[in-house]
């Protein structure tokens, strides 16, 4: 991809604060930091429409002894099987579990599943992270489990 140079006018105080932030985050230069900011905003913007295709993950922390919670988690995941690629379960200690549900599908369905999982009684911490391949100029696959492009890995 061709690189294009562009100039941005900023007040010096804002730029100073930005430089401090990118230094603390380990950026080698401003350009890379600007690119990341722009990608992040494009990603957020393209997640607005319900029909946009996204990939992501729902991370859940909970105590497996919470009444009915493991059953409800299982039931919801079967209900939304069409947007779930896989689930990773990790037993953190005698009580606590970490479950990561990998998702792929239209934003509205993925968001709905995320909200329902995170909202279950007994979930101590939950977070949905979504990324839109369209924000990076990728051609999206429209259905979970289908892609118009095959590759080995
Ligand atoms: Ni567990």
Q: What are the defining features of this structure?
A:
153 residues, alpha+beta, 2 domains, 4 strands, 25% strand, binds nickel (II) ion
Shape: elongated
Strand order in the sheet with the most strands: 2-3-1-4
CATH topology of the largest domain: Alpha-Beta Plaits
Number of domains: 2
Q: What is the mean pLDDT?
A: 87
- Name the helix and strand elements from N-terminus to C-terminus, one letter apiece: HHEHEEHE
- Unreliable spans are 144-148
Q: Give the number of helices.
A: 4
Main beta-sheet annotation: 4 strands, antiparallel
Q: Kindly name the structural category.
A: alpha+beta
Distinct ligands: nickel (II) ion
Structure description:
The protein is of the alpha+beta class. The protein folds into two domains: 12-46; 53-136, ACT-like. Chain A, domain 2 (Alpha-Beta Plaits, 2-Layer Sandwich), CATH 3.30.70. Helix content is 35%, strand content 25%. The protein has four helices and four strands. Strands 2-3-1-4 form a four-stranded antiparallel sheet, covered by helices on one side. Strand 2 (84-91) and strand 3 form a beta hairpin. Mean pLDDT is 87; it is low at 144-148.
Brief overview:
With 153 residues, this protein is an alpha+beta fold.
